[in-house]
Specification:
69% of the residues lie in helices and 0% in strands. The protein is mainly alpha-helical. It folds into two domains: 45 residues, no CATH class; 42 residues, no CATH class.
Protein backbone atom coordinates (compact mmCIF):
# COMPACT_ATOMS: atom_id res chain seq x y z
CA UNK A 1 0.00 0.00 0.00
CA UNK A 2 2.65 2.51 0.97
CA UNK A 3 6.33 2.50 0.32
CA UNK A 4 8.82 3.46 3.01
CA UNK A 5 10.09 7.01 2.77
CA UNK A 6 13.26 7.52 0.80
CA UNK A 7 16.42 9.10 2.22
CA UNK A 8 15.29 12.55 1.12
CA UNK A 9 11.90 12.17 2.86
CA UNK A 10 13.01 11.13 6.34
CA UNK A 11 12.39 13.70 9.06
CA UNK A 12 15.49 15.40 10.38
CA UNK A 13 15.81 16.38 14.02
CA UNK A 14 15.51 20.11 14.47
CA UNK A 15 13.96 20.65 11.02
CA UNK A 16 10.32 21.25 10.22
CA UNK A 17 7.69 22.09 12.79
CA UNK A 18 9.19 23.00 16.16
CA UNK A 19 8.17 21.06 19.24
CA UNK A 20 5.95 22.29 22.02
CA UNK A 21 8.86 23.11 24.35
CA UNK A 22 10.53 25.20 21.71
CA UNK A 23 7.32 27.13 21.07
CA UNK A 24 6.92 27.77 24.79
CA UNK A 25 10.54 28.95 24.98
CA UNK A 26 10.07 31.31 22.03
CA UNK A 27 6.83 32.62 23.54
CA UNK A 28 8.53 33.21 26.89
CA UNK A 29 11.34 35.12 25.17
CA UNK A 30 8.79 37.30 23.38
CA UNK A 31 6.90 37.99 26.60
CA UNK A 32 10.12 38.81 28.44
CA UNK A 33 11.20 41.26 25.76
CA UNK A 34 7.72 42.79 25.67
CA UNK A 35 7.69 43.31 29.43
CA UNK A 36 11.22 44.75 29.23
CA UNK A 37 10.06 47.31 26.67
CA UNK A 38 7.02 48.16 28.81
CA UNK A 39 9.28 48.47 31.85
CA UNK A 40 11.65 50.86 30.11
CA UNK A 41 8.70 52.91 28.86
CA UNK A 42 7.22 52.84 32.34
CA UNK A 43 10.34 54.44 33.78
CA UNK A 44 9.61 57.54 31.71
CA UNK A 45 5.81 57.50 31.47
CA UNK A 46 3.87 58.03 34.70
CA UNK A 47 0.96 55.89 33.47
CA UNK A 48 2.89 52.58 33.44
CA UNK A 49 4.40 50.80 36.44
CA UNK A 50 7.95 50.48 35.11
CA UNK A 51 9.51 48.58 38.01
CA UNK A 52 6.74 45.98 38.03
CA UNK A 53 7.22 45.25 34.32
CA UNK A 54 11.00 45.07 34.74
CA UNK A 55 10.64 42.54 37.58
CA UNK A 56 8.25 40.40 35.50
CA UNK A 57 10.69 40.59 32.61
CA UNK A 58 13.59 39.50 34.84
CA UNK A 59 11.60 36.51 36.12
CA UNK A 60 10.79 35.44 32.57
CA UNK A 61 14.40 35.87 31.43
CA UNK A 62 15.60 33.66 34.30
CA UNK A 63 13.32 30.89 33.00
CA UNK A 64 14.80 30.91 29.47
CA UNK A 65 18.29 32.42 29.63
CA UNK A 66 21.33 30.64 31.10
CA UNK A 67 23.09 34.00 31.48
CA UNK A 68 20.21 35.42 33.52
CA UNK A 69 20.17 32.24 35.65
CA UNK A 70 23.89 32.65 36.37
CA UNK A 71 23.37 36.29 37.29
CA UNK A 72 20.57 35.32 39.69
CA UNK A 73 22.83 32.72 41.35
CA UNK A 74 25.57 35.31 41.82
CA UNK A 75 23.12 37.81 43.30
CA UNK A 76 21.71 35.14 45.64
CA UNK A 77 25.21 34.38 46.89
CA UNK A 78 26.08 38.06 47.33
CA UNK A 79 22.79 39.05 49.03
CA UNK A 80 21.57 36.06 51.10
CA UNK A 81 18.99 38.09 53.07
CA UNK A 82 17.29 39.24 49.89
CA UNK A 83 17.46 35.67 48.55
CA UNK A 84 15.57 34.46 51.63
CA UNK A 85 12.80 37.01 51.03
CA UNK A 86 12.71 36.01 47.36
CA UNK A 87 12.39 32.33 48.32
CA UNK A 88 9.53 33.16 50.68
CA UNK A 89 7.59 35.03 48.01
CA UNK A 90 8.35 32.36 45.43
CA UNK A 91 6.95 29.71 47.79
CA UNK A 92 3.83 31.78 48.35
CA UNK A 93 3.35 32.21 44.60
CA UNK A 94 3.75 28.46 44.01
CA UNK A 95 1.23 27.67 46.75
CA UNK A 96 -1.24 30.15 45.25
CA UNK A 97 -0.77 28.59 41.79
CA UNK A 98 -1.39 25.10 43.20
CA UNK A 99 -4.62 26.30 44.85
CA UNK A 100 -5.72 28.21 41.76
CA UNK A 101 -4.85 25.46 39.24
CA UNK A 102 -4.98 22.17 41.17
CA UNK A 103 -4.63 19.87 38.12
CA UNK A 104 -1.38 21.43 36.95
CA UNK A 105 1.97 21.22 38.67
CA UNK A 106 3.82 24.49 39.16
CA UNK A 107 7.48 24.29 38.26
Amino acid sequence: MGTPPGPDQTPVAGKGRPGRRRLIRIGTWCLAIGFLVLGILGLFLPILQGILFLVISAILFVRVSPRARLMRQRLRKRYPDTAAVYDDYEGRARAWLKRRFPGRGAK
